[in-house]
Specification:
- The structure holds 2 protein chains of 2 kinds.
- Chain A is an all-alpha fold.
- Chain A has one domain (about 10-70).
- In chain A, about 85% of the residues lie in helices and about 0% in strands.
- In chain A, helix 1 packs antiparallel against helix 2 (about 35-75).
- The longest helix of chain A has about 45 residues, at about 35-75.
- The radius of gyration of chain A is 20 Å and the shape is rod-shaped.
- In chain A, about 25% of the residues are buried.
- The model of chain A is unreliable at about 80-84 (pLDDT under 50).
- Chain B is mostly helical.
- Chain B folds into 2 domains: about 5-135, no CATH class; about 140-250 and about 260-430, no CATH class.
- Chain B has helices at about 10-20, 20-45, 50-65, 70-80, 85-95, 115-120, 125-135, 140-150, 155-160, 160-170, 170-185, 190-195, 200-210, 215-235, 235-240, 245-250, 260-280, 285-300, 300-325, 330-335, 335-365, 385-395, 405-430; strands at about 65, 100-105.
- In chain B, strands 1-2 form a two-stranded antiparallel ribbon.
- In chain B, helix 11 runs antiparallel to helix 12 (about 190-195) and helix 12 packs antiparallel against helix 13 (about 200-210).
- The radius of gyration of chain B is 23 Å and the shape is elongated.
- Classes of the chains: A mainly alpha, B mainly alpha.
- The interface between A and B is medium-sized, with 24 and 21 residues.
Amino acid sequence: MSPVFHASARHWLAGLALAAVGVAAARLLAPALSDTPRSVVTLLGQVIALSGLLVIALGVRRRVRDAAAEPAASEASGETAPPA
Amino acid sequence: MQGFHILDLFQGITSLIEASPLVMFGRIGLILLGGLLVYMGKKGILEPLLMIPMGLGMIAVNAGVLFLDPVTATHIVSGSAPHPDPAVAAELAAQAAAGQTPGTLFMAPLVEKADSLIYLMQIDFLQPVYTFAFSNGLIACFIFMGIGVLLDVGFVLARPFLSMFLALSCEFGTIVTFPIAVALGFDFREAASIAMVGSADGPMVLFTSLTLAKDLFVPITVVAYLYLGLCYGGYPYLIRLLVPAKLRGLKMPAKATIKVTSDEKLAFAVVGCTVLCLLFPSAAPLFLSLFVGVAVREAGLKYFMAVIDGPLLYGATMFLGLLLGVLCEASTILDPKVLILLVLGIIALLLSGVGGLIGGYMAYFFSGRKINPVIGIAGVSCVPSTAKVAQKEVSSVTPDAIILPEALGANICGVITSAIITGIYVTVIPLITK
């Protein structure tokens, strides 16, 4: 696996974990609380869960940018693709 | 032949004359409006796929009122929610038994009781479609599936910050219209349904109003679909008003073609659908419909794609237009609240457009004056109209300036954001109003 995919995988894992924490806060933790803390924790959980999706999207963007930069870097260093 | 009256042959005219003046003029007005919609659809001023069946349905239902036979009329009266005034309820029952109840052979949208519905399905030709596909939101979900198949989430994944920021800015109207509607006397459920008009997303408005404000869903949905045409016709003027030509023609720095793989898009659809359904189960049918469309597209299931973006999407659109038109029967739609709805709908869409352009300006300044602020309006989720409007306005000033990829990212993210706002409204409002 290339370093580009390693970086992307880290974002995917972090995003999934963040989304799971957010969902757990909004759906499991919040209902057990009283009125005001419940609203705060629900909102916070929703924001955290949606941030998880944003982290995944950022990972994809980074993977795409790095992948686009790789051929440019090899062209600059004079490297060529190995013969098939 | 004794007791025969020549007007019995032409009950459409008799029922028109015998109605109250308000209903009579309402029917004539709606027949004329239906004709206008067909004309505007044909001319391309409004969306023809929706406006032509809707206009014709509106004409037919207001012209085709007859006096129902006593059995059908009794089923309609006894199958609907009883009138709050017992004297009026008794009068309606007597009128039904005497065969003097005006109605149509299209459908009876207010009937709720199962046995009456089964009877009416054998009488009214659109009743099965209404009961099994419209009143439960299935048609909205079919359309959303079609939208999902047409969406490329790669545009969002390539520019997540910009897309999400602009999409959130465009929810300005959806959020601000809610307190305005409450201040004008609507309850929270009705206000949320009206505020959703600001998302400029028909299926979302339909779903929210069916879930939260069933008594007002006909006028709200009709207003929403009529106003969708404003995104195409009115937003260019808003852009020209708020963005000077120099900024409209701003060329953005050229970027390499971005390739987000279909695996990544499919995985994102799966994760996105799961997380959003876990957060907002009340709007889960919408999320599933949208992401199943995305998943089918990214998995390359060509046969399914052909079904969803062909017969399913266009069939649902045609029946949606037809049913919306048929629901516009004068005695159903004439409500003093409709006038306020017309005003609130315009306010919601205007505020969403203004919010988007403010977001566009913020992106322009934060990016060091590199991002064209016109892109902001594309966050209004009328796919792909607002993205096309943005590109057209930019091209009219600088023909070789391309903003479409960024605009589509904001546009697609706008659909997802509107679905999230729908989820928040349909989840939170019932809890507040308990």
